[in-house]
Amino acid sequence: MAFTGLPRSTPPDPRTALAGHPPDAPAHAWLDEAVARITDRPAAIGALFPAARRRCGHARLDEHWTVDEAARAVLITALPLEGEPLAGELAGLFRHGDPAEQRAVLKALPLLDDTPDALAGEHPGDHGRLGDRALPLVREALRGNDSSLIEAALGPYGAARLPDGEYRQAVLKCVFYEIPLDRIAGLDVRADDELARMLADFAHERVAAGRDVPPDIWPVVRAFPVLDTFTDLLTAETHAAAPDRREAALRALKALREATALTAEPEEEA
Amino acid sequence: MRIFDPHIHMTSRTTDDYEAMYAAGVRAVVEPAFWMGQPRTSPESFYDYFDALLGWEPYRAAQFGIQHFCTIALNPKEANDPRCRPVLDELPRYLAKDRVVAVGEIGYDSMTPEEDEALAVQLQFAIEQGLPALVHTPHRDKATGTRRTLDVVKESGIAPELVVLDHLNELTVGMVLDSGCWAGFSIYPKTKMSEDRMVTILQDHGTERVLVNSAADWGSSDPLKTRKAADAMLASGFDDDAVDRVLWRNPVAFYGQSGRLELDEPKPDEESSFQGNSIRRGGA
After folding, report:
1. How many beta-carbon pairs below 8 A join chains A and B?
2. What SS3 state is found at A60?
3. How far away is chain B from the Cα of A207, in angstroms, using its nearest Cα?
4. Where does residue A270 rank: exposed (0-12), middle (13-18), buried (19+ CB within 10 A)?
5. Cβ atoms within 10 A of the Cβ of A16, count?
6. What's chain B look like in SS3?
7. Nearest CB neighbour to A145, from listed B51, B95, B276
């Protein structure tokens, strides 16, 4: 399962998001001019991309975009490039970008990944304007410690294209960094036996340490066969010698029972 | 007393320095990109350095109540190494960033043709991006180097009020002020300029278009030299307003020409981090 097709949650169109922003004539004029310059000469994006925050602002627009992220996404989508040249330009923006710029690059990736599901065949890496070519950026963000970048890396692009093992590790990293799992893409289609096993083991470690378990892992654990052995294990933990450990097991067991299986009632995507 | 150090290499300084600077009145600094005592051999080393000047160091400074801005450039000394020249190609990306308030340090070290070219190219970058320029004057053959620098500045077409020539002394201050450029002075423990000589220069040339800095770096230097210069001014009869002008309003006016000098009190806290890394010990 190297490519799972586009997750359903493609980000909102950044232009539409910006249009709903209170009109700021100089900012819009700057952005239009910047798009024209990038259309004319793609390399111009190098000195325009960092300036977008100063020129356009940084207020939050919606759940997905801030003004600077949306403006930078507009600049990226204006690049008249595809394939390697597009990936090269993105790699330069990411390499020389500050954290906000890197976040904008990652958040814009799904907008360049216009592969229809039907095309996701035997060599999906070749499809779309970008293919798998921006995966190194996703991986770099996932190696770091910045939770906002880790979250952005697990948007629809990364979630659709990371190999299974890397996707699972990334989900586990989110749990460690306390990134709520409902903020990352692809979990509904990519959660599997192995991920559920890893999360159950993680929960067991927490219980053994007398600590609480983040509640958002339960729906994943519940949806897979590991549930039975894990429930037995937690039940056994409720008889542990250490009181902290017993209490943590009781709390975990209660939370597990209360959790709704993720796959039982799939939610409608907005 | 509020102090703006317009030239200090905080990357080389400790957290004790930040504490002492805050206690002395320093509330804002500009850290120019320069060489690091040991030559770099690849462009990537510069990019990591620029990223630190724009990311890690402002974070560190803010934890001590000090606002940190920077200037970005390929310095003259390393402009002579062909392995470092490609840095010039990526500079426009960095010069476009929010906390970059000038192009610098540019200028001459040994006055080679390579330095000529790097200086000219980077003055054009300043013009293109509407930025001031911080120009280092050479330590060897200073008067000749300063004169030649002024010629190149004039040829470039950049407005003189957007340019500061730094590390000046008694013999170079006159020609710089006459040109319409700003005059920068680095107060060092032993070399360059002392606080007492600085006071004499201010008495002779006035306080207009003058910047006083510590230029503290990895060498023998003192990050409190700005405060010591201010104290020396007061001791020789300058009033509080003159001190505030030289050590706060002048650097604010000069770097404010970038349109990017957003001065607001940084709020140190126990929680924040840069890219998940913090200056606290025992954490990430």
Report:
1. 46
2. strand
3. 23
4. exposed
5. 12
6. CCEEECCCCHHHCCHHHHHHHHHHCEEEEEEECCCCCCCCCCHHHHHHHHHHHHCHHHHHHHCCCCEEEEEECCCHHHHCCCCCCCHHHHHHHHHCCCCEEEEEEEECCCCCHHHHHHHHHHHHHHHHHCCCEEEECCCCCHHHHHHHHHHHHHHHCCCHHHEEEECCCCCCHHHHHHHCCEEEEECCCCCCCCHHHHHHHHHHHCCCCEEEECCCCCCCCCCCHHHHHHHHHHHCCCCHHHHHHHHHHHHHHHHHCCCCCCCCCCCCCCCCCECCECCCCCCC
7. B276
Nearest to B90 among A53, A96, A144 (CB): A96
Considering only CB atoms, which chain A residues are within 8 Å of B129? 47
The burial class, CB within 10 Å (0-12 / 13-18 / 19+), for B151 is: exposed
Check B276 against A48: CB less than 8 A apart.
no
CA A107 to mean position of chain CA atoms: 8
**Both tokens of residue A26?**
């100089």
Res A106: pLDDT = 98
In angstroms, the Cα distances linking B90 to A46, A170, B46, B111, B170 are 8, 32, 10, 23, 37
Q: Considering CB atoms only, which of A47, A92, A98 is closest to B55?
A: A98
Sequence-distant (≥ 6) Cβ neighbours of residue B246 within 8 angstroms: B202, B207, B210, B211, B212, B229, B230, B233
Are A51 and A58 in contact, with CB atoms under 8 Å apart?
no
Task: Answer yes or no: do A48 and B97 touch at CB < 8 A.
Answer: no
CA atoms within 13 A on the CB side of B63: 19
Q: What would the pLDDT profile of A103-116 be if each residue is shown by its tens digit?
A: 999 999 999 986 54
Chain A hits for B93, CB-CB cut-off 8 Å, are 46-47, 49-50, 92, 96
Per-residue tokens: B284: 């990430």
The whole-number pLDDT of residue A192 equals 96
Stretch (H or E) spanning A204: helix A193-208
Mutate one of B275, B279, B280 to test the A interface: name it (highest A CB count within 10 A).
B275
Ranges of each domain in chain B = 3-256
A89-99 CB burial, b ≥16 within 10 A, e <16: bbbbbbbbbbb
- In degrees and rounded to multiples of 5, residue A256 shows phi and psi of -65, -40
Q: Which residues of chain B have pLDDT under 50?
A: 283-284
How do residues B261-276 score in pLDDT, each as one tens digit? 999 877 777 777 888 7
The C-alpha atoms of residue A115 and residue B52 are separated, in whole angstroms, by: 37
Enter the tokens of residue A142: 């996932």
Please check whether residue B45 touches A, CB under 8 A: no
How far does chain A reach from its first CA to its final CA, in angstroms? 25
Tokens 């595809």 found at: A82
Name the fold adopted by B3-256.
TIM Barrel (3.20.20)
Question: What are the φ and ψ backbone dihedral angles of A188, each rounded to 5 degrees?
Answer: -65, -35
